[in-house]
What we know:
By secondary structure, the chain is mainly α. It is built from eight helices and no strands. It has helices at 2-16, 20-42, 53-65, 75-98, 122-138, 140-151, 156-163, 167-186. The protein is globular, with a radius of gyration of 17 Å. The chain starts with a helix and ends with a helix.
Amino acid sequence: MVETEEQITELLVAWSNGDEVSLERLVPLVESELKRIARRFLKRENANHSFMTSDLINEAYMRLIGQRDVQWKNQSHFFAVSSIIIRRILMNHARDRMTGKRAGGAFVLNIDDVEIISTEKTTELISLDEALTCLSNFDMVKARIVEMRYFGGLTTTEVAEVLNMTPAAVTRHWNLARAWLARQMRK
């Protein structure tokens, strides 16, 4: 595992420095983690949802390859950026599905109960995204932690590494962010 993490970091740095061959060697090493992230969201879906794991991963790859100016620090940094990209993909998909429709009525929702992509849950995902965008306007650290933990599936330790914080500080921010988002989404 450590050897793979070091290898991924070396390939990311080489890719940041313009070595396109390193990208070809990197993809197989990160593919299983990206699949795990995608499956995490899609496993809660009905069998008839329109996004397949491979679709979500392919879209994420396309956007990650477009990240030319990123100076990758390590594996955790890569998956943190991946989590942001996955959030954007899912939100674009949800908004596309809601085009021409308006959700009526308010509802009470726990952030941990949000299911991604299904037609019935699309309004909940959009509500979460709007609340997260609002949170980012006054506390970007908490918003980034939610993106990395919820959308990216990163552990507290991985998030702490990316943000150069202690795991205890990440946990505090995570708990406060979840409480704030839940309250915001009930409005």
